[in-house]
Amino acid sequence: MSRKILEGIKVLDLTNVLSGPFTTLHMALLGAEVIKVENPKDGDLARKLGIVPGLNKQLMGTSFLAQNCNKLSITLNTKSSEGKELFRKLVKDADVVVENFRPGVMDRLGLGYRTLAEINPKLIYCAISGFGQTGPDALKPAYDQIIQGLSGEMAVNGDERLNPLRTGFPVCDTVGGLNAAFAVMAALFHRERTGEGQFIDVALLDSIMPLMGWVAANLLIGGEQPVLMGNDNFTAAPSGTFRTQDGHINIAANKQEQWEAVCDVLEVPELKTDPRFQERDTRKKNRKALTPLLEAKLAQRPTAHWVEALNAKDVPSGDILSLEDALRQPQVQHRQVLQKVTVAGVGDVEVFGLTALFEKTPGSVDAPPPTLGEHNARIFGALGLSEAEQAELKAKGVI
Q1: DSSP state of 162
Q2: DSSP state of 234
Q3: Catalytic-role residue among 173, 201, 232, 319
Q4: Per-residue pLDDT reduced to its tens digit, 191-215
Q5: Taking CA atoms, which of 41, 65, 258, 398 is between 20 and 30 Å from 84?
Q6: CB count in 10 Å sphere of residue 120
Q7: Active site (annotated) includes residue 246
Q8: Which H or E run contains 257?
Q9: How wide is the angle at C-alpha 237 spanned by C-alphas 291 and 296, nearest 5°?
Q10: Residue 2: per-residue pLDDT
């Protein structure tokens, strides 16, 4: 079996809900030993979040199951003196600490980066928060939707009838998590070359804004305010969503030759010479006149016909699938984006695996999300605590 990229790397994961767990999930899929450090009462809040009430009561909510494969779970009250001491012992041979508390929380516990770096100078400490560790908004609370609104993302989404519009999944949390995972990997590479650990400050607000690079560039460089375009793509025409006989189709004719191919496939050669549509910029200005002319032809046949015909002429096009159909489409199955794992007391569940396919060091789903405190005996035993000592600490609410 191939050695995984992060095999031998130990991560202490104090995160909750999504952004942080999404960060450490990617590290766990790459082979790191990720130890979730959870509060003894009910653990990660995501354990109680999800659509299935019975799983929430088991502290294995769907939101938790989705983000925590390959991880170990211990319970530890880091507010207690005994809990702090146990955490410091864990830090001695850890490589990474990841937390997504509000700025200052870990410092007030006496477990901030400066303190932990004295114990382990090679430690990489990643703090994820809504607004970052510094700045006028640093101490404000934040969830994904708050960041969507403050980033401008909701303002540029939707159309004249429906705006502002939230993205239908927690894009800021997940992008922030990916940004943090990327940052930790870069810090590990730096440490490999220099031996130095360091502190990483990741803000969800910072993380999402560069994703609007083209829209922002039009404003910052071109002086053009965003225009609400719904399902149309501002970079070209025809590029967007169009009605067909039985539904809708996405077409992205971004090149001149692709536009001409659209005319050929739809059998509207006269549009090629129409002065309103001959050139890219004029087509963009006249897209409202162009769309109904195209849809009149598209309405004559079902989506599947047009997808095949357009793709055959090298015009990017595709159906607009429901989530269920998207998850079951042959291409996604071929790429093994979803993997099955058996969870005790729950059964077989499907979760997302690592979507970067490494030839020599592939990531994989090897273990189900852990039950709360499932690995207490293993981890605390390795620290030298006897069963009796662990039982005493449990009775005191420390673990």
Answers
A1: S
A2: T
A3: 173
A4: 999 999 999 999 999 999 999 999 9
A5: 65
A6: 18
A7: no
A8: helix 256-265
A9: 20
A10: 66
